[in-house]
């Protein structure tokens, strides 16, 4: 009986090591951790496609997405808001960006699954292929705030 258990353990060990190494290979490179979203507690990484960077006075806040960013910005004198351009993964001015919501591709974590683009053309091309609605910054901000307020009421 002990020999059967030993043989089984020897057979399962390489399989578990291989499975872990495959998980490491498949894991996306999110870059370094920048902090934690102060609204939902999610870790925020530099290459996270829905990341929002909010500058207030001499403090930079990191949000996991527009939904949480609206809560962070509430009542603050915001100097600058940046989002990650889906095509280049570079930070761009959120107020000049375009957003796609409701596509068939959905970030796993998002309260409001959105993708940001530096240009309307890029957002339109993405929406043409993957569906969704293209919104400017103010429309995206208003939608995120509305959804956040509705969720507060239902809780």
From TrEMBL:
<feature type="signal peptide">
    <location>
        <begin position="1"/>
        <end position="19"/>
    </location>
</feature>
<dbReference type="Pfam" id="PF05573">
    <property type="entry name" value="NosL"/>
</dbReference>
<protein>
    <submittedName>
        <fullName>NosL protein</fullName>
    </submittedName>
</protein>
<dbReference type="InterPro" id="IPR008719">
    <property type="entry name" value="N2O_reductase_NosL"/>
</dbReference>
<keyword id="KW-0732">Signal</keyword>
């Amino acid at each position: 009986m002990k020999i059967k258990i030993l043989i089984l353990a020897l057979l399962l060990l390489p399989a578990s090591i291989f499975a872990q190494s495959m998980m490491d290979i498949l894991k996306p490179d999110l870059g370094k951790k920048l902090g934690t979203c102060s609204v939902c507690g999610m870790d925020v990484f530099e290459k996270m496609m829905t990341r929002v960077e909010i500058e207030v006075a001499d403090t930079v806040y990191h949000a996991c997405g527009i939904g949480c960013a609206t809560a962070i910005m509430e009542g603050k004198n915001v100097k600058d808001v940046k989002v990650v351009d889906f095509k280049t993964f570079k930070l761009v001015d959120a107020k000049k960006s375009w957003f796609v919501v409701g596509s068939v591709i959905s970030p796993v974590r998002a309260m409001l699954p959105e993708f940001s683009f530096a240009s309307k053309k890029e957002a339109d091309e993405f929406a043409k292929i993957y569906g969704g609605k293209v919104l400017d910054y103010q429309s995206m901000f208003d939608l995120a705030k509305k959804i956040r307020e509705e969720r507060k009421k239902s809780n």
